[in-house]
Amino acid sequence: MIKLVYCLTKRDDVELDAFYRYWLNEHGPLVRGFADAIGAVRYIQSHTCLPDLNELFIESRGLEPAYDGITEVWWQDRAALEQGMTSEAGVAAHAALKEDESKFIDFSRSRVFMTEEHTIFDN
After folding, report:
1. What is the rounded CA–CA span in Å between residue 113 and residue 67?
2. What is the pLDDT of residue 76?
3. How many helices (H) and strands (E) does the chain have?
4. Secondary structure string (H, E, C) spanning 70-110
5. The pLDDT of residue 73 is above 90
6. What's the mean pLDDT in 79-108?
7. For residue 17, what is the enclosing H or E element?
8. What CA–CA distance (Å, rounded) separates 7 from 123?
9. Distance CA 32, CA 104 (A)
10. Does position 51 have pLDDT exceeding 90, yes or no?
11. CA-to-CA distance for 25 and 32, rounded, in angstroms?
């Protein structure tokens, strides 16, 4: 499996509650609707919580502020990912997703990268 990890920071002009609401209730269903076009087999949103605890980690380690959340998207393999990024339907889907993301995500303060999982334990 190949996984995209997208660490999100909201736009400054979007309130945090509105960011989470839009991401979950508007953008999430949009991604689900494009799943076949992009070849994705799983999509997860992780919304940042426990700000007081996050602040303790940040202060104790001298870290940058927490992201507002993380999106994870899985593809069965690299071929499925490449097909979803290059097919006519996939290209159109990615363009529509990027346009929608621009409504609530600050691209300049967010990060995205591809990963391959290595399970250390799974109780």
Report:
1. 15
2. 95
3. 6, 4
4. EEEEEECCHHHHHHHHHCHHHHHHHHHHHHHHCCCECHHHC
5. yes
6. 97
7. helix 16-22
8. 26
9. 18
10. no
11. 11
- Residue 93: closest CA among 13, 35, 24: 35
Q: Which helix (H) or strand (E) holds 20?
A: helix 16-22
**d(C-alpha 113, C-alpha 108), whole Å:** 14
Amino acid 43: pLDDT: 98
Q: How confident is the model at residue 52 (pLDDT cuts 50, 70, 90)?
A: confident
The dihedral sign for the CA sequence 3, 30, 45, 14: positive
Select from 70, 64, 66, 65 the least CA-distant residue to 113. Answer: 70
Measure the CA angle with vertex 67, ends 59 and 50; round to 5°: 65
Q: What is the pTM for the complete model shown?
A: 0.90
pLDDT at 23: 98
Alpha-carbon gap, residue 111 to 7, rounded angstroms? 5
- Average pLDDT of the residues in 21-43: 98
